[in-house]
Design a protein that fits this description.
The protein is of the alpha+beta class. It has 21 helices and 35 strands.
Length: about 750
């Protein structure tokens, strides 16, 4: 025996780049065409088609007894789909889940998963299955010459290339899949709506997408949750084949308990996951308006999630809007209607093209079915002609069969029979010939002749063929159609609560020390000066407000800052430096703070005698470095900002360190967003720079309030009548205070 030597020259040489490119392209085409994308004809991927076909071959019709799922999976992977058994079983489970498929193809018995956990199904050795009644829509015409067949993976048997679906299943059950370089996401639809659109397209081949959308109003998921995508977006989605879809849970407020009950979740949303998401927000203290959660789902109420508000004052509508925006109570689905067309090519198709292509597929399928039946009828008529001849000449036929060596040839020659007729006569048992009756043969011939003429007329007429397709579509809709499950509702876009809205509204007092340490104490009834301070530090100022407000600070350079009150350290400790949260200029100190609504007014002033009215919102700044608010003349210092009660009624009292007092209406000052302001009290700038004379304090007096001045151990309280003596025009020097108050230490606003 000699060894076979292959010359190196005889081996095929190919560049690695070319080989890898070809191998990857081959793999890509296999995944696209034979794994991930559905066919427009039956709407099934290969594994789904093979499962349905294998079950039909096992005799597992909807009326049959259940069989172990392992038996089906074994047939599928052994005969048609040489892949993993778990992958085949998962595909089978998906087709059996009523919460996954709009029209399930498999009828399962046992644990087939739940909406909370679709993958919680039992192993295939425990579950049993058979085909669902709806599968007949795909299989009924399979043995009637309607579709092409191909060898299975080992060439031992044939399998259908596509099933002869009687309705556009590709839209009815939808599908998702990821191929190489492309994916598909087709949502489920309602059978009656899709059939109505098909009928309309049959009657009006030039119908627009908008006209078809009068029938197909939108996807129809296997859940009662609302579809809230606007109609214009749905029409655009159906025109292009791409878009997105939003679903929102159904809920109601129970009158007796005041609880919020969620009764339907979006498609593929898990109730357990939704409760986890809400609980996580509660744990993070981002949902203070919810006190408890319960899952009361059972057999009677498959979805019943109970959300208990903290009190009956909580706005349930607003709370649900937040939950829609922040949990799976509202979900968005991608729509990408990518499928393999009748030409065998993958592509994204709009609604009109999908239905047009499917109707052409259905028309061809129907024509092939009719032609197949016509061929059978004509064959039977041909055989009956031969049988009738034999019956009329039964004695001679029997004599020829008994006496001739080759009776077939003699029969064909004697009676003018065809090869097929002669074989049929010879294959007929003698006892059958004995009881053949001419009337029976002629009756069958007559019935078959009528059927042949009817079939021929339909095949010869495009109109009659179209009418038959329409009639059969309507029959399927009547047999398997149901009402829409997912209502189409117009809803506004959900908005999550802002951080401020989620904060509980409690009174708080913010305290700032001389060294710039800040803290917040609960309530308004504390004495800030009595708090403990670090060695060498002491109380400087405090401001009262609420936890959902910002603390607006003003520093010695005229810059303003904002800090969220709820984030400040507790007054149980000594706080923390403001500079750890903000970046004020070097050497700057904080001179005052305010809290309140953005529209409230305040007075800003410098001790050079200039000031203006501003809104609290003008002090707000997101930056750690703050923003420039009050411009200071040379040598001037910032005075603490003053809140205004009523800018039209309030009086401004300006006191200089030289013992002068000027009172005038606050309304005489301009309202600015920032700047230096107008002159409040006339003090020469040179004296301000040398610090000989400056405005000691500005006080805002509401009607009924008095002004108390302190000089050493003396104090003087000026009431409304007393203040009239010091009233003057804005920008004047003011009047001298009585003897003993030529040097004023401080001024306070007091009640009468």
């Amino acid at each position: 025996m000699t060894d076979l030597v292959v010359s190196p020259d005889a081996e095929e040489q190919i560049a690695l780049k070319d080989y890898s490119e070809k191998a990857y392209l081959d793999y890509s085409m296999y995944v696209i065409l034979d794994r991930a994308l559905p066919h427009i004809g039956d709407g099934l991927k290969p594994v789904q088609r093979r499962i349905v076909y294998a079950m039909s071959e096992l005799g597992l019709k909807a009326t049959a007894k259940y069989k172990k799922s392992a038996r089906t999976v074994g047939d599928v992977i052994g005969k048609f789909h040489p892949h993993g058994d778990s992958a085949a079983y998962e595909s089978m489970v998906l087709m059996a889940q009523s919460f996954s498929y709009r029209y399930p193809l498999v009828d399962g018995q046992g644990n087939w998963g739940s909406p909370d956990d679709p993958k919680s199904f039992a192993a295939m050795r425990y579950t049993e299955s058979r085909l669902a009644p709806y599968s007949e829509v795909l299989l009924e015409e399979l043995g009637q010459g309607t579709v092409e067949w191909q060898p299975n993976f080992d060439g031992t048997m044939d399998e259908p290339v596509v099933l002869p679906a009687r309705v556009p299943n590709v839209l009815l059950n939808g599908t998702t899949g990821i191929a190489v370089g492309m994916a598909t996401d087709i949502p489920p639809h309602n059978l009656r709506e899709v059939v109505a659109a098909c009928v309309h397209l049959l009657d009006n081949p030039k119908a627009t997408t908008e006209e078809l959308c009068e029938h197909v109003r939108g996807p129809d998921m296997p859940t009662e949750a609302e579809i809230i995508t606007p109609r214009a977006d749905l029409i655009k989605m159906y025109e292009t084949g791409r878009g997105s879809l939003r679903m929102r849970a159904l809920w109601q407020l129970e009158k007796d308990s005041g609880d919020i009950v969620v009764s339907a979740l979006p498609h593929q949303a898990s109730g357990a996951k939704v409760l986890e998401q809400i609980a996580a927000q509660m744990q993070a203290k981002k949902l203070p308006m919810v006190s408890d959660l319960r899952d009361e789902s059972d057999h009677e109420n498959p979805t019943r999630l109970v959300i208990v508000p903290r009190s009956n004052r909580i706005d349930a509508e607003q709370l649900m809007q937040h939950l829609f925006a922040s949990t799976d109570l509202e979900k968005t689905y991608r729509v990408n209607m990518n499928m393999i067309g009748v030409d065998g090519r993958p592509g994204v198709r709009g609604l009109t093209r999908i239905l047009s292509e499917w109707l052409s597929f259905r028309t061809v399928t129907t024509r092939r079915r009719l032609q197949h039946r016509l061929d059978k009828v004509e064959r039977r008529l041909h055989l009956l002609d031969g049988l009738l001849t034999a019956y009329l000449n039964i004695d001679e036929v029997i004599h020829i069969i008994r006496t001739e060596d080759k009776p077939k040839a003699v029969l064909m020659e004697r009676f003018g029979l065809s090869d097929m007729q002669a074989d049929y006569i010879l294959d007929t048992k003698l006892r059958q010939l004995a009881r053949l009756e001419e009337m029976k043969i002629r009756a069958e011939q007559e019935a078959l002749a009528k059927e042949r003429d009817k079939l021929q007329k339909i095949l010869d007429s495009a109109v009659k063929l179209k009418n038959l397709v329409r009639k059969e579509l309507l029959e399927v809709a009547e047999a398997y159609g149901d009402d829409r499950r997912s209502p189409l509702v117009v809803r506004s876009e959900a908005q999550a609560f802002s951080e401020k809205e989620l904060i509980s509204v409690d009174p708080v007092t913010v305290v700032v020390s001389e060294k710039g340490w800040i803290r917040a104490a609960k309530g308004h009834d504390i004495d800030p000066a009595a708090l403990s301070y670090k060695a060498g530090d002491q109380y400087k100022f405090a401001v009262r407000g609420k936890t959902n407000q910002n603390v607006l600070l003003l520093d010695s350079t005229g810059r303003s800052y904002a800090l969220a009150a709820h984030n400040l350290p507790s007054a149980r400790g000594q706080g923390e430096p403001v500079s750890s949260r903000l970046n004020p200029p070097n050497g700057a100190t904080f001179e005052g703070a305010l809290m309140g609504a953005d529209e409230e007014r305040l007075l800003l002033a410098s001790d050079a005698g200039y000031g203006f009215v501003a809104k609290l919102g003008d002090m707000y700044s997101k930056n750690r470095a703050g923003k420039s608010l009050l411009n200071l003349p040379k040598g001037a210092r910032v005075l603490p900002p003053q809140a205004l009660t009523d800018p039209q009624q309030d009086l401004l009292a300006a006191v200089s360190n030289e013992g002068r007092l000027l009172v005038f209406p606050v309304s005489e000052l301009p309202e600015l967003a920032r700047g230096k302001g107008n002159k409040i009290m006339n003090i020469p700038s040179a004296r301000v720079q040398s610090r000989e004379e400056y405005v000691l304090a500005v006080c805002v007096l509401s009607p009924g309030q008095a002004l108390t001045l302190y000089s050493g151990k003396r104090h003087l309280t000026l009431k409304a009548g007393d203040l009239d003596h010091y009233r003057g025009e804005r920008g004047r020097r003011g009047n001298k205070l009585p003897r003993g108050f030529q040097k004023v230490d401080r001024a306070e606003v007091t009640e009468k």
